[in-house]
Amino acid sequence: MEATAGKKILVVEDEQDIAQLVQHYLQKDGFRSVTAINGVEALKKVKAEQPDLIVLDLMLPEMDGLEVCKRVRSAPETAMLPIIMLTAKAEESDTIVGLELGADDYVTKPFSPKALVARVKALLRRIDRTPSTGAEHYRYGALTMNSTRHEVSLNQEEVPLTAKEFGLLEHLLRHRGRVLTREVLLNAVWGYDYYGTTRTVDVHIRRLKQKLPPLEDAIVSVKSLGYKLKDSD
Questions:
Q1: Structure pTM?
Q2: Is the pLDDT score of 191 beyond 70?
């Protein structure tokens, strides 16, 4: 049985047929699930149910998904809670806003329930994985990373990162000095064959730089290709 089995997923969706469909596929794969039909109820369920991941619709009554995402990320106890956003809007700008606010991933409607479950699994695996050969530690100037404990510190102060931010930083640290294309980063960090926009990487890089200021100059954009983390001095 997969390590992700038994994890609790909060499905926030006001369209009952979609919510039930997602629930069915999650439970079929061994997940537990709870639902909320609006943003206000979602925040209550986050506190009461303490889910392991949220599948969050963008367009919700009372409080939209963007605001829910923002509030979840702003609360210390849920700042690292994985979020996959569902959106019926095809415009890239809506997706980018969601990612800017802290969503780890997004799925555009109409979507395959199996594909959504695959993304849920991939995101949870990145958090729950345990290296087979002891702890992996990285140091880059005043920045340190402990992969086993999922911790990143700057000047000995812990900096909370989302699952995707952590995975992206880990990949850059492991391959420092090498140019990594956006496609390589998407497939390595997101953990599946990703068909969304490569702008996803740009947004997460920007968020990393905001949270870890020394990376502002350390992560270099390579025109038309991707990014490179400079070799540390």
A1: 0.71
A2: no
Q: Name the residue with tokens 């991933």.
A: 105
CA pair distance 95, 131, nearest whole angstrom: 32
202 burial level (CB within 10 Å; 0-12, 13-18, 19+): middle
Sheet (strand 53-57) strand order: 32-36, 8-12, 53-57, 83-87, 105-108
Backbone angles phi, psi at 58, to 5 degrees: -75, -45
Pair type for strands 151-154 and 157-158? antiparallel
User: Are residues 88 and 109 in contact, defined by beta-carbon separation less than 8 angstroms?
Assistant: yes
Nearest to 170 by CA among 194, 148, 147, 199: 147
The span from the CA of 113 to the CA of 96, in Å, is 22
| Residue 35 CB neighbour total at 10 angstroms | 19
The per-residue pLDDT for 109 is 86
> Of the given ranges (22-26, 132-136, 204-208, 216-220), which has the lowest mean pLDDT?
132-136
Q: Residue 72 contacts by C-beta under 8 Å, 6 or more apart in sequence?
A: 43, 46, 54, 78, 79, 81, 83, 102
Q: For the range 76-81, what are the long-range contacts, defined as Cβ-Cβ under 8 Å and sequence gap of 24 or more?
A: 76/160, 78/46, 79/160, 79/162, 80/160, 80/161, 80/162, 80/163, 81/46, 81/51, 81/52, 81/53, 81/54
Least Cα distance to 57 among 26, 79, 35 occurs for: 35
